[in-house]
Amino acid sequence: MTKPNKNKQSKHHLNISHPKNKRADCAWVLHNVLENGRSLSELLPIVFERYEPKERAWLQEMIFGCLRNLPRLQIWLRELLDKPLKNKQKIIENLLMLGMYQLTYSRTAEHAAVSETVETCKKLGEHRLAGLVNAVLRNFQREDTSAKPIDSPHAKLGLPKWLHKKLSQHYQNDYDMVELANNMHTRAPLWLRVNILRTSMKDFVNTLKENGYEFECFEPHTIKLTSSGDIPSIPGFDDGFFAVQDFAAQQASLLLNAQPNDVVIDCCAAPGGKTAAILESQSELTHLYVLDSDSKRMERVHENLNRLGHTNTFGDKLSYLVEDASALNDMPNLPMFDKILLDAPCSATGVIRRHPDIMWLRKPSDIEVLVNLQANILEAAWQKLKAGGELLYATCSILPEENQQQIESFIAKHNEATLVPIHTIDGSILPTWQILPGENGMDGFFYAKIKKAHSE
Question: Residue 195 sits in a domain of what CATH number?
Answer without folding.
Answer: 3.30.70.1170
